[in-house]
Design brief:
By secondary structure, the protein is mainly beta. The strands form 5 sheets. Strands 2-8-7-4-5 form a 5-stranded mixed sheet, with no helix packed on it. It starts with 17 loop residues before the first strand and ends in a 36-residue tail after the last helix.
Length: 263
């Protein structure tokens, strides 16, 4: 399925995450698939929605024995179930969107449902419904361009970047080709680089502080030298005790610890 530009994917508020089991975006006819809203906050406030045509936006089918609208289960999936799926709250908030593709053919491409983080390794697997693809030659394509062959049915993209985003397909010799799946790569938040000005200011501040300490030390020594009194300038007089007033009736005073008025 080609990449679908859906207005819901532009939502900046992602309070829930749509998960898919099995964790892939392509399915064979009559397979089962489960979709649910992530457990961020109260998941019961979210409903799994889908857009299976430009004119049809509806609630995703859920098990008849369950009333939980945040869970969707399709027992026998059909090509008519191909479309865009997401979680939506009663307040109109939306989660990430997932493109689900259902094919009546015999080959699918297993690729990540959610965006991959830049720098991670991503493995794409080409799967044949009838036979093991590990015994057949598998070709992989990105945006209709050949990118490599594999005898195991798998190909790994090491340290993915934004340039690896695109529409991927695979083809198994003698079995046919898969639908396309869009690979999305999410950029990592770069660490804030340390300012070159910081490397300059810190040493300068350290030198200034050291100079200030040295200047204070010499200033203290200078003042101390002026206040020193020589014994030749001291005149010793008779030690006379000062007159004191004493209250003989005064009782000794005792101070006890006072507890604060809190527990």
């Amino acid at each position: 399925m080609e990449k679908i530009n859906h207005s819901l994917s532009s939502s900046v508020f992602l309070a829930a995450t749509l998960t898919v089991l099995p964790n892939r975006s392509q399915f064979f006819l009559y397979e089962s698939v489960s979709l649910s809203c992530g457990q961020q906050g109260n998941s019961s406030d979210w409903t799994v929605k889908r857009n299976i045509s430009p004119e049809i936006t509806e609630d995703c089918p859920r098990p008849t024995d369950r009333r939980n609208e945040s869970h969707c289960f399709i027992d026998d999936i059909y090509p008519l179930d191909t479309g865009v799926y997401w979680c939506e709250s009663a307040a109109g908030k939306c989660s990430n969107t997932v493109n689900i593709t259902v094919t009546g053919g015999s080959v699918i491409l297993e690729s990540p449902v959610l965006p991959e983080m830049e720098g991670d390794d991503v493995t794409l697997r080409c799967r044949n419904r009838t036979t093991s693809s590990s015994s057949l030659t598998t070709d992989f394509y990105k945006d209709q361009l050949f990118i490599g062959s594999s005898s195991t049915g798998n190909i790994t993209i090491h340290s993915v970047s934004k340039s690896d985003e695109g529409l991927y397909r695979c083809h198994i010799s003698g079995a046919g080709g898969s639908p396309g799946s869009w690979l999305t790569v999410r950029a990592r938040h770069p660490e804030a680089p340390q300012s070159s000005l910081t490397h300059i200011l810190l040493p300068v501040a350290g030198v200034c502080l050291l100079l200030a300490v040295v200047m204070l030390f010499f200033f203290w020594r200078h003042r101390k030298g002026k206040n020193d009194v020589s014994y030749t300038d001291v005149t010793i007089t008779q030690n006379v005790q000062p007159h004191r007033i004493r209250d003989v009736d005064a009782a000794p005073t005792f101070y006890s610890a006072v507890k604060p008025g809190c527990t």
